[in-house]
Every structure is written in C-alpha cells, then in structure tokens.
C-alpha cells in the first residue's frame, strides 16, 4: 500500500488492491499504521475532497485540515495514482 504523504500523525495512502474494476480515485487516511477500516476520501475531478466515510473516527476539525492538504496536493495524488494503477476514473 503506497504511502502518499503524512499530515502530522496521519498517513494518507492508497491500497494496492483497489478492486476490479478499479474504484474511482480516492485515498485512505488513518492515524498511525494503515489498517483495513480507515477513513476514505474521494478526489473529485476538480481536486476537491468528498468524504466517503470516517471509519477511523478522525475528529472533524483534524479531518478538515487533512482534507485541505489533500486538496492542495491533489495533482500530486492524481499523478501517483496514475503511475501506480495506470488509469483514473472519478466518483464525481
């Protein structure tokens, strides 16, 4: 599972196996070590975040801050997704 970057103690990453067909572009966020039941954030066509779920129960203010960083680095995330998976689709 490729780690994209860290925001404080939170890891932003992809799962290496995102299903077939490949799910639309998104990242997982968790404090500490990546785990199966984490927060999932879709990346929209315009580089914004859309919360799919907050399974790791990140406090709202912290999650907003992490999403701000994700949005600021969305082009980097798109490039890393494309390099890793070879294709990109969007949830919206």
List keywords for this structure.
92 residues, alpha+beta, 2 helices, 27% helix
What does this structure look like?
There is one protein chain. The chain has one domain (3-85). It is built from 2 helices and 5 strands. It has helices spanning 60-72, 74-85; strands at 3-7, 10-13, 26-31, 39-43, 49-54. The longest helix has 13 residues, at 60-72. The chain is globular and about 30 Å long.
Look at the structure and give the mean pLDDT: 92
Tally of individual domains: 1
DSSP helix fraction: 25-40%
Q: How many DSSP E strands?
A: 5
Number of helices: 2
Order of helices and strands: EEEEEHH
Characterize the overall form.
Answer: globular
Provide the structure class: alpha+beta
Q: Largest beta sheet: what is the strand line-up?
A: 1-2-3-4-5
Distance between the termini: 24 Å
- Specify Rg, calculated over alpha carbons: 12 Å
Main β-sheet description = 5 strands, antiparallel
Beta content: 25-35%
Taking pLDDT < 50 over at least 5 consecutive residues as the criterion, the unreliable ranges are none
Protein name: DUF4160 domain-containing protein
Pfam family, one: DUF4160
Helices and strands, with pairings:
Blueprint: E1 3-7, E2 10-13, E3 26-31, E4 39-43, E5 49-54, H1 60-72, H2 74-85
Antiparallel strand pairs: 1-2, 2-3, 3-4, 4-5
Pfam families: DUF4160 (PF13711)
Protein name: DUF4160 domain-containing protein
Organism: Anaeromicropila herbilytica
